Amino acid sequence: MDIKASNDAVARRIAAMVERIAGMQSRDEYYYNLPVTELHGGSKVVVNGREMGMYASYSYLGLVGHPRINKAAQDAITKYGTGTHGVRTLAGTLDLHRELEETIADFKKAEAAVTYTSGYVTNLTVVSTLVGRGDYVFSDKLNHASIVDGCLMSGAKFRRFKHNDMDSLERMLAEAPSDASKLVVADAVFSMDGDIIDLPRMVELCRKYDAWLMMDEAHSVGVLGKTGRGIEEHFGLWGAVDIKMGTLSKTIPSVGGYVAGKKDLITFLRHASRAYIFSAALPPAQAAAANEAFKVILDEPWRIEKLNANTQQFINGLKERGFDTMLTETAIVPVLCGADETAYAVTRYAHEKGLFVLPVVSPAVPVGMARLRATVLASHEPEDIEYAMDVIAEAGKQVGII
User: Fold this and answer.
1) How far is CA 249 from CA 35, 120, 233, 264, 402, in A?
2) So what's the pLDDT on residue 314?
3) C-alpha of 188 from chain center
4) Averaged pLDDT of the chain
5) Who contacts 225 (Cβ-Cβ below 8 Å, separation ≥6)?
6) Active-site residue, 379 included
7) Tens of pLDDT along 155-173?
8) 37, 284, 395, 402: which could form a disulfide with 349 (CB 3.0–4.6 Å)?
9) Looking at residue 281, what is its pLDDT?
10) For residue 7, what pLDDT band results from cuts at 50, 70 and 90?
11) Which whole-number Å values give the CA distances from 220 to 233, 234, 278, 318, 331, in the listed order?
12) What's the CATH fold of domain 67-299?
């Protein structure tokens, strides 16, 4: 099919996206999919032959390249090879997978855990497996796309409450039939804004209205809590969350996703969730790396302390320089720019000065809310952060947002 000449709706969508990307590239505004050729401790990378400070990484504790984690992966390849024999239910389960799931359950103070091949797939399959027609699912307005897609795929009555607004959630819960099964799901730390869900109030409402509670901890494990165990530890509410979801590709430098919870819940998911039944198992090296990473977090608590210090330095320093960082309390620090073009201009200046940071523009965020979505890591040094803030501030002055 000649896409450019076609009136087919699919062809038009493809053509529109290709045209948009070409336009961005012609204006030197395309900063996505840039190949990184070297990782220097995670906080610095080499792109197009230049070393740059990394402020777009999810490796919050700086565990990428950690020698213990690397060795665990290498040993797993030596012992098991590079792949598995298929899906977990049949020939794909290794003792490594079981060990990883036991480690996760212990880390999250849960009875059991199950792993999947990606975080996106985890949310998609868990939500759509737990609820269906006749049930109700309640999702924060700013939840990750994987949660939204899981809610839509489930066929349940899908209700989106105002962002972190527990009064909005309660109104929706009160309107649902008392005899209907209900699931409330939210990000623990929101991936675009960096703020934290009001877990205490959400727990209270779930208990009042007899609803299941699911937390996506993709950006909170290793970030929240004294030992990095996440949002329950942060609020001192161990056992309050029924379905503890997380990823293995952010703070944990591997790939995959998991759910931890009661043993019966995990048994059900192993035998009912399609992504577990019909997806190949995690490769041995990735399972071993993830397993070791959880242990490193507990063995090196200084990383969490340093991340907290770096986070405060970054947020406070940007505010002092005149930026709006919205409601962030975490290592995800939005630098509000307003118009898409302004975000591109700030990004261009940052890249010229050696900062790897990326813009987030519409439709990923509302029109007029474009931003740099900067992240700070435990592996950043204070002087690196000062330099980054000075560069962003100079760019902000040039475009007139501070």
Assistant:
1) 18, 11, 21, 26, 35
2) 98
3) 10
4) 96
5) 231, 232, 233, 234, 304
6) no
7) 999 999 999 999 999 999 9
8) 395
9) 96
10) confident
11) 10, 9, 28, 22, 9
12) Aspartate Aminotransferase; domain 2 (3.40.640)
* Residue in this structure with the two tokens 């049949």, named with its chain if needed: 90
The answer to whether 219 is a known catalytic residue is yes
Quote the pLDDT of residue 89.
96
Residue with tokens 């993709």: 218
- Beta-sheet pairing, 136-140 with 157-161: parallel
Annotated active-site residue in 108, 219, 244, 351: 219
User: 138 near 212, Cβ under 8 Å?
Assistant: no
pLDDT confidence bin for 3, thresholds 50/70/90 = low
Sign of CA dihedral 238, 107, 332, 390: positive
Which of these is catalytic: 157, 244, 250, 306?
250
Distance, C-alpha 400 to centroid of its chain: 31
2 pLDDT more than 90: no
- Burial environment of residue 170 by CB neighbours within 10 A (0 to 12, 13 to 18, 19 or more): middle
232: nearest Cα among 105, 104, 328, 108: 108
Q: Which of 59, 191, 220, 379 is the catalytic position? A: 191
Give the DSSP H/E element, type plus range, for residue 106. Answer: helix 95-107
- Residue 218 and residue 191 in contact, taking contact as beta carbons nearer than 8 Å: yes
CATH class, domain 25-54+301-399, is: alpha beta
- From CA 43, how far away is CA 262, in angstroms rounded? 37
Which secondary structure element, helix H or strand E, spans residue 133, and what is its range? none
pLDDT tens for each residue of 295-312:
999 999 999 999 999 999
Comparing CA positions, the residue from 137, 147, 152 lying closest to residue 206 is 137
With tokens 């952010």, the residue in question is 250
- Tell me how crowded residue 139 is: count the other CB atoms within 10 A of its CB: 24
* Reported confidence tier of residue 294, pLDDT bands at 50, 70, 90: very high
- For residue 26, give both structure tokens: 């012609």
Q: Where are the domains of the chain?
A: 25-54+301-399, 67-299
Residues β-bridged to residue 196 = 189
Report the pLDDT value the prediction gives residue 40, as an integer from 0 to 100. Answer: 81
Strand partners, 310: none
